[in-house]
Amino acid sequence: MNSDFKSMRDIKKELERIDKLTDLDVKEYADTGGYADRIAKLSKDDLKPTQLRKFFNAIKDMEKNSNKWEDLEMNFYMLKPQLANAVGRKLVPPEFYEIFIELMEKVDRGTDEDKINNFRVFVRFVEAIVAYHKYYYPKAG
Fold first, then answer.
1. What is the pTM of this model?
2. For residue 107, what is the DSSP state?
3. Do 109 and 19 touch, CB atoms closer than 8 A?
4. Whether the Cβ atoms of residue 39 and residue 10 lie closer than 8 Å to each other
């Protein structure tokens, strides 16, 4: 892992190298200087906290209400157009959207059990982004 990411593009390129989210060690995305920390820091004020919370809450609801991939698949994929809409409304920066989509692409890999395990990493990853974003921008939202 490279903790000297200069841009969201650098992070996206790094994430493109992995096959599925379970290939990531928790330290790579949750530790200080890890992916989530850098994504939050680089998002600055362009990422509205209410939007970030909205997507995080939707993801947490999926996690609570589903233990099978087939139960959450539809809601999971509906996040993509919702995110696209938020970018169009300038509530989410396009760079964040591209990283989020890259992460989502890494969830739908392997067997249904693999997908659920990837989804659980996705939830923890986004949770770390939300926490670091609040740390860097406590007064925003």
1. 0.92
2. T
3. yes
4. no
